[in-house]
Write a structure and sequence with these properties.
This protein is mainly beta. The chain has 1 helix and 15 strands. 4% of the residues lie in helices and 33% in strands. The strands form 3 sheets. Strands 1, 2, 3, 4, 7, 8, 12, 13, 14 and 15 form a 10-stranded mixed β-sheet that branches. A 3-stranded antiparallel β-sheet has the order 10-9-11, with no helix packed on it. It has a two-stranded parallel sheet with strand order 5-6. β2 and β3 form a beta hairpin. The longest helix has 7 residues. The mean pLDDT is 97.
Length: 164
């Protein structure tokens, strides 16, 4: 492991020699991730993108892309766009990336089940802010907003997310 890897340990997220409190999925950490199980997938994952709300923050990294009105993420295992960013109108099951709450103001995308998704293996595994400390996610990694803001500009496309 490199110091530039994001390492999810049983108690924290380790990055650049620092430990940050983190949340994981309500289904715990699993080697058998399935759509809707609320689990965070165990393993080594690449970071493949960063999204942010330009109306709420400055661009956090050179490689970050803005979240626009109508940006969605497909979580419909029966559709060909499963686990991909899509645009409204989109009649299939999806998550809104531009939310009223700040949960997805800054999102780091992982390559879990992407770009060639296996139907039902899980979608939308992101790193984003948590709702509150100790509150689980739906399978993502949740961080304190100030920690996420510190981490995001220090990640690169060769940074890995390692979930132990």
């Amino acid at each position: 492991m490199k110091t530039t890897d994001l390492v999810v340990t049983p108690t924290a997220l380790r990055f650049m020699g620092r430990n940050f409190p983190r949340s994981v999925g309500k289904g715990g950490i699993s080697s058998r991730k399935r759509e809707g199980d609320g689990a965070t997938p165990r393993g080594t994952h690449r970071l493949v993108g960063m999204l942010y709300r330009p109306d709420r923050m400055a661009k956090p990294a050179d490689w970050a892309l803005p979240i626009h009105i109508g940006d969605l993420w497909s979580d419909d295992p029966g559709h060909e766009d499963y686990n991909m960013m899509v645009r409204a109108p989109y009649p299939h099951s999806h998550e809104r990336l531009r939310r009223a709450d700040p949960l997805y103001d800054l999102v780091i995308l992982t390559d879990w089940n992407w770009p060639y998704a296996v139907k039902g293996r899980g979608s939308a595994i992101f790193i984003h802010r948590w709702r509150k400390q100790g509150h689980p996610t739906e399978g993502c990694i949740g961080l304190r907003p100030s920690d996420l803001a510190w981490i995001a500009p220090r990640t690169r496309l060769d940074t890995r997310l390692i979930v132990l």
